[in-house]
Amino acid sequence: MPTKVAIVGVTGYAGGELARLVLRHPEARLVAAVARSHQGEPLRAVQPHLHAAPDSLVVGSDVDDAEVVSRRFRRRGREVARAWLGDGRTVIDIEATSAYAIQGSMTLVRLHAPRARAAEGSGLRSH
Q1: Gap between the Cα atoms of 69 and 48, Å rounded
Q2: What is the number of other CB atoms lying within 10 angstroms of the CB of residue 95?
Q3: Taken in order 84, 35, 95, 112, is the CA torsion positive or negative?
Q4: What is the largest CA-CA distance in the chain?
Q5: What is the C-alpha to C-alpha distance for residues 54 and 36, in angstroms, rounded to an integer?
Q6: Domains of the chain, first to last
Q7: pLDDT tens across 45-93, in order?
Q8: Among 39, 44, 33, which Cα is nearest to 66's?
Q9: What is this structure's pTM?
């Protein structure tokens, strides 16, 4: 059974890209697209590149029955994360520079290593 995922901030660039990945993942199902703007609009209308989004998936304000909630945490992030954790959910922070999963103890667990510095003169970065 696929893991139910909610993305908070789905109308932004990072949220849209995460939605694209979740929609294509065979073991995940996007059940909630959350944002302050565009509420009530179909996700495909807001993020036209999300061809795999079902017509029934509209932007709203609730994470519904998601098991995993992803958002970019800012000022109020910890309080919101605590509430979601109290509901038994996994919370993932999609910050611009790193990705962390927040476990029940509010411990941040790095999901991937930060990018290595570019090799001098090569212009290439490792990912």
Answers
A1: 22
A2: 13
A3: positive
A4: 50
A5: 20
A6: 3-110 (3.40.50.720)
A7: 999 999 999 999 999 999 999 999 888 766 566 778 778 888 889 888 7
A8: 33
A9: 0.74
- Asked if 90 and 101 count as a contact pair (C-beta separation under 8 A), the reply is yes
**Distance of alpha carbon 123 from the chain centroid:** 29
Question: Which position has the token pair 């999901």?
Answer: 111
d(CA 110, CA 11): 24
Q: Which of 85, 83, 113, 86 is nearest to 99 (CA)?
A: 113
The span from the CA of 61 to the CA of 124, in Å, is 40
Place of tokens 């994360």: 81
Name every residue whose Cβ is closer than 8 Å to that of residue 5 and which is 6 or more positions away in sequence: 22, 28, 29, 30, 31, 32, 66, 67, 68, 69, 70
Q: Could you give the residue ranges of the DSSP H alpha helices within 25-106?
A: 43-46, 77-86
Among all chains, which residue has been given the structure tokens 């909610």? Answer: 6
